[in-house]
Amino acid sequence: MSLPATARQYSYPQLGSFNNLVIQDVPVAAPKANQVLVKVHAVSLQFRDLMVASERYPGSIPTNLVPCSDMAGEVVSVGEDAKPWKTGDRLHKEQTPEISASSLGGQSQGVLVEYRSFPAHSLVSIPSHLTYEEASTLPCAALTAYNALVSGYEQVKAGDTVLIQGTGGVSIFALQFAVASGATCIVLSSSDEKLKTATKLGATHVINYKTNPDWHEEVLKLTNDRGVDRVVEVVGNATLGQSASSSKMGGSIDIIGHLGSAAGNVPAFDIIRPSIGKQLNIRGVFVGSVAQFKDMNRLLSAHPETTRPVIDRVFPFEDARGAFAHLQSQAHVGKVVIKVSA
């Protein structure tokens, strides 16, 4: 197929706010020998995208940054050495070592653009039952949850009790994977409406942490003072102490985010004491590998309905700033997606 001469692309002429995003036409170049040119159909947003926009993300950010890291698209041109891809393949990119080191949409240019080239080895096929919008949610949110609970050092299993913080992208995928594994799930949120959604997705118990600020006490009551086997920790130091107090002897805490770390000033002793006393396994989780991505997609295909991505809202490409604003409002459950092209 013939390639367009130009494509629309979002970038930041100046950081400070997502409201600084501008859209412009840029040339579309043919892929290099080891690259694949992709027509981007959908992009999903991460909390990290807000941090980058507001200059709270570590590292050196390039001039005129193109934001966002997660996309799903269609192959439109293939470099001569870019096997096994062919025109028309549906795919998304994954965290290869070089991409992890440079961080798409952070330390390197991102994916909020109509066409973009990627290294052939960094791409993974989309499960056939998913739309582009659904598939765009997988690279960071789903894979992080999968790495934490299914493909990490200890797989969640039937009979386990898992405590999940929040109802954002990673948290909802963690709930779905834990439920699919036969685990009992306890979900925390500040919204009763969001907790209703969590219950529909399989949560056995829900706790509103606004009305129960000492929520670890509720967790212990629900587990007959035993504590939970696993905690999916998305907030950071503001809640890590309560997560440790909620855990069983020898339990595990998977730290996958720091949504509230800036707001929390919890004494280290309040975190260290229960962690040592209970001999907890505390593990940091950063997305996952291409091999894990392929394994996860097989799980998604085997359980197409119970693991289908939860999308809160899809915004048109022209309203990317509206999508960022919706994410910042924290009114969403699951993922916020931008539809780039039909």
TrEMBL record:
<protein>
    <submittedName>
        <fullName>Alcohol dehydrogenase superfamily protein</fullName>
    </submittedName>
</protein>
<dbReference type="InterPro" id="IPR052711">
    <property type="entry name" value="Zinc_ADH-like"/>
</dbReference>
<dbReference type="GO" id="GO:0016491">
    <property type="term" value="F:oxidoreductase activity"/>
</dbReference>
<dbReference type="Pfam" id="PF00107">
    <property type="entry name" value="ADH_zinc_N"/>
</dbReference>
<dbReference type="InterPro" id="IPR011032">
    <property type="entry name" value="GroES-like_sf"/>
</dbReference>
<dbReference type="InterPro" id="IPR020843">
    <property type="entry name" value="ER"/>
</dbReference>
<dbReference type="InterPro" id="IPR013154">
    <property type="entry name" value="ADH-like_N"/>
</dbReference>
<feature type="domain" description="Enoyl reductase (ER)">
    <location>
        <begin position="16"/>
        <end position="338"/>
    </location>
</feature>
<dbReference type="Pfam" id="PF08240">
    <property type="entry name" value="ADH_N"/>
</dbReference>
<dbReference type="InterPro" id="IPR036291">
    <property type="entry name" value="NAD(P)-bd_dom_sf"/>
</dbReference>
<dbReference type="InterPro" id="IPR013149">
    <property type="entry name" value="ADH-like_C"/>
</dbReference>
<feature type="compositionally biased region" description="Basic and acidic residues">
    <location>
        <begin position="84"/>
        <end position="96"/>
    </location>
</feature>
<feature type="region of interest" description="Disordered">
    <location>
        <begin position="84"/>
        <end position="104"/>
    </location>
</feature>
